Each structure stands twice: as structure tokens, then as C-alpha cells.
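User: Structure with pyridoxal-5'-phosphate, C-alpha cells only please.
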Amino acid sequence: MIDLRSDTVTLPTPAMRAVMAAAPVGDDVYGDDPTVNALEARTAELLGKEAAVFVPTGTMSNQIGVRAHTEPGDLVLIDESAHIVRSESGAPAALSGVTLKPLPGRGGVFTAADVDDAIEPEHPFNPIHLESPARLLCVENTHNGGGGTVWSLEQVQAVCAAARRHGLATHLDGARLWHATAATGVPEARFAAPFDTVNVCFSKGLGAPVGSALAGSRELVARARRFKQQFGGGFRQAGILAAAALHALEHHRGGLSADVASARALARGVACIDGLELDLDRVQSNLVRFRVTAMQAGAFATRCHAGGVHLLPQGESGVRAVTHRDISAPDVERALDIMRRVLRAASRSQGRSGPCN
Ligand SMILES: Cc1ncc(COP(=O)(O)O)c(C=O)c1O
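Assistant:
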């Protein structure tokens, strides 16, 4: 099976398992785990921040970030299709008691003007206590729901400057920030610099089995640690997991540009298959989103699965494919071949002319 559902399906390598087995460990709740401590220090260094805290998931990392910046009743500005909005099970409301104000991003990217528009200007006729106080701006880079879109440094700097003008803190959901760097050559620390807190994940394209981290100032990370504990994320001999993440940072991070190249190859192939539609400009990292016009996306995904390629259907016509370290160049060609065969069979059964190649 060529599994293109997500880069979270990547499996730990034998070398990674070996370092996990040999990792020195201690009780992380007491701050005693040397491998967790080493991972936190290395992550903070890579992101140019003072400190970092290791947590089980990207969702927890985002949520302790949101909680650390806000109090119940506050307003959080965020793109409408962000992971925090769509796929964290209502956690900002449930855990932090905040309201999300969705911004109209294009491929997940919004502008400083969108931030300005979302903030009600003060005026003596409008009692200020009617508003939820806007406290936080969140950005996602790369943007999953937008199709792996990469925010440029200039775009990030512009929205963070707007946030500062309005007195907002800033959080980056950089679950796949590593891929933004692989795609652009801009170091992670430069992308992270305008933000107060940054979430990064080790369990996606980097290939570690578990784990994310929240980085920021010493003070903010200390506050976030309290919410890590409150949200049930205090773990003990977690060095076994941190060892995998450290190994991934040192040995897998440099190879992520191969995922970007595979995604481009896959996208170019998809773009020339009759019955599929894709905007090549939107393929900027390791995610490939396209539309099926010849049949329902669900039926397409089921038939592709039967043929040996696992894709994620999204809605009536959308499909997501994600390239990762366990997908080779021949896998991409095979996946394209399976998609072509599925569509050819469908068009034959509907008496239509076949796909272009
Ligand atoms: C952009 C983004 N943020 C956060 C997460 C959450 O990570 P986790 O699945 O580790 O909770 C994901 C997961 O896919 C994601 O794509």
C-alpha cells in the first residue's frame, strides 16, 4: 500500500528504535529526564527561543499555547481553515474558554488588513466592555487546510506587526514548519522570530512516533508547563520518545526537501490526468490537494485504495495526498498509475473517452 493519507503515517526506522531503547531517562514531571531536557534545549535553539516544553501532541502544544496567552472570554484571531479551528475538537472553547474569530485566509494565508478589519476600533459611542478582548493572533505555517501553503517571511512579519499594533500576542502553529524551511531555505528560527510561541511537531514528516514542543520565552514556557500538567500532559520517562525526536531532528530534518520534490512530481502527474483538477501554484510543500471531477471523491479514494494507493477524500470532490520519507519516487509513479487506471475504468463504464495518458 502506498500510504499518502498523511506524513503522520511515517514509521520509526531501526536506527531510531535503537536510540529510543538506549535513551537515558528520568521522571520528566520532576524535570529529571536528561533526554527530554536535551530535546527541549535543542528545539529552543533551532527555533531561536529561550525555552521549549516537550508534549505528547501538536494539539496539546497549540492548546497550552492558546491557554498561556489568554483568559476565558478572550478573542483569538485565526484563519478560518486552521487546524486549531477545524481539527482540535473545540479545544480552545473547552479548555481555555476563548472565542475564535475566523479570518478569511486565501489558502490559509491572510493579511495585515484582515487583522486590522477584525479589530473593532475604539470610539466613545461604543462601550468597550461589550467586546471580547482580542488577545492572540494564530498563524499556521505550512498551512494544512490551505493545501500545504507556505507563508513567506514578509507575510508573517506583516501580520505579526499588525497584531503588535493592536496589542495581541502571537502564536505559530508550525506543526510542519520544518517543511516551510525545506521548501524555501528560510531557517526555522527566522520564521519563528516574529512569534511569542511556536508549536512544532516531531511526529509528522520528521518521522518520530510521538511528540511536539512549544517554544517561547522562559516565562511563557513556564506558564505553558502549568497548563501541560492541567491538561493531563505530564509524562514520566518520556526520554524514550524524546530520543526519537532528537534523532529525527539530527538525521531526518535535512531530508525533507525530498518530500517537497515528491509532492511536485505527484502534483505535475495529477494535473495531467483527465478527471482530476489541481492548482499547481498551491503545491508549495509536501501536501497535494486536488479535485476529482469524474466521480465522487469518496468513490475515487475507495477504488484507489483497492488498487494500492491510500488517499484521503475531503468533501464531495476534494482529495488530499501527502508525501513523506516512506514514499519513494517509484511510489509516486505507481500512485499516479493507479489513479489513471481507476479513472480510465470509470470512464469506460460510463462510455466516455479515456484520460490523456
Ligand atoms: C497544522 C497542524 N497543527 C496541529 C496538528 C495536531 O497535531 P497532533 O495530531 O499531534 O495533535 C496537526 C495534525 O495534523 C496539524 O496538521
